[in-house]
Design brief:
With 172 residues, the chain is mainly α. Helices cover 60% and strands 0% of the residues.
Length: 172
């Protein structure tokens, strides 16, 4: 009985090996194809991620640099991101995405940070515009100030000033 069991095990292992060889020759089955497609869909598209980051950066920097939207058109950013993604995929770079496992946090900081700063500056300006300007003491500088003393002369002298003649004396 032991020999029969051993022969049956050998036959089943031979049959399993033959079946595996037939499957390999036939190519992937529908289940394997579906699993590969699902795995590819689960993977992120590095080119689309790079394109989105470029467009976000252009949108944020466009107020300071108005020439950027003309340079980084949607077609240009799509072509550039596809080229960069091709190089990254070839060398195995950034396979976890542009920002790795903290991508959501970094994207949030990049979007919300500038908005928060702009909000701070805007509210600060709004508050300053509502408050009247108060002067602390001192004269009103908007009123003209009278000038006292002799009228300025247009005479230019070099050297020591000449003393004015005494009253009643005639200069020679």
């Amino acid at each position: 009985m032991r020999d029969e069991t051993q022969e049956a095990a050998e036959q089943s292992s031979e049959q399993a090996a033959d079946f595996a060889a037939l499957q390999a020759a036939a190519g992937p089955g529908p289940d394997e194809v579906a699993a590969e497609e699902q795995q590819e869909q689960g993977r992120h598209d590095l080119g689309a991620e790079i394109e989105g980051l470029l467009q976000m950066a252009v949108g944020m920097l466009a107020p300071m640099f108005p020439s950027l939207p003309g340079i980084y058109t949607p077609e240009a950013t799509q072509a550039a991101s596809a080229a960069v993604a091709g190089v990254c995929n070839k060398h195995g770079w950034m396979q976890g995405g542009m920002m790795g496992r903290y991508g959501e946090e970094i994207a949030c900081a990049l979007i919300v940070g500038p908005m928060a700063f702009a909000t701070y500056k805007g509210v600060k300006g709004d508050i300053a515009a509502r408050q009247p300007v108060e002067r602390i003491g001192g004269p009103d500088l908007s009123a003209p100030v009278p000038v006292s003393g002799p009228a300025p002369s247009k005479v230019v002298t070099f050297g020591a000033p000449v003393p004015a003649p005494a009253s009643g004396a005639v200069a020679a």
